[in-house]
């Protein structure tokens, strides 16, 4: 357990000591909130679908958690390049504990990032129907962060260079985000192939769960279904990520 805590703490300190990273990571969510929240708001309202900022804010929070958690696997490649991973792997510590510590560290950083973006949404005018529902939304943030941090670790474990990781991440992250219903309602009449694609995207259930918690409009799934899908997929990816991590060759 000490190894898990130390690796978790290392990821947390590395994030908190980089103020430039914290500030820069808020730029893209701010752009989405300003351009989409206020730009598409009048169109959304004329269509009788309510306030678009209320709808899109959970999607922007989910985007921040997704990006931060899945790109935590990039740190694995940095550690491989600079030799820290080799020192960690030869230590008398089970590899499973190393993987869990790094995954939890990446998930914690992603949750912090999500909370910062949520505060930013509140500044720009987003209002939950009840502030007592925020802990439920935080629970969905944790599930999203753990799920995609495990996916990032699984992918990072099988790569040798950062260029390959960035290509795979760009190939995966943007479809995952845009198919999650963060920008458009999933409970509307959409093309059948797109509908199936959104149903197999785990981020869809995380963002929809946050919309339930915040009382945002246009939810698509029951809250219990959202939580169950995230837990099941998260466990599968944790097991898969742990298996991939044990196969790393230094």
UniProtKB/TrEMBL annotation:
Pfam families: ABC2_membrane (PF01061). The keyword Transmembrane applies. Residues 20-248 form the ABC transmembrane type-2 domain. It comes from Occallatibacter riparius. Keywords: Cell membrane, Membrane, Transmembrane, Transmembrane helix, Transport. This is Transport permease protein. Belongs to the ABC-2 integral membrane protein family. It is found in: Cell membrane; Membrane. It is a multi-pass membrane protein. The chain crosses the membrane at residues 21-44, 56-78, 99-126, 132-155, 167-186, 227-246. GO terms for cellular component: ATP-binding cassette (ABC) transporter complex. Its main location: membrane. GO terms for molecular function: ABC-type transporter activity. The keyword 4Fe-4S does not apply.
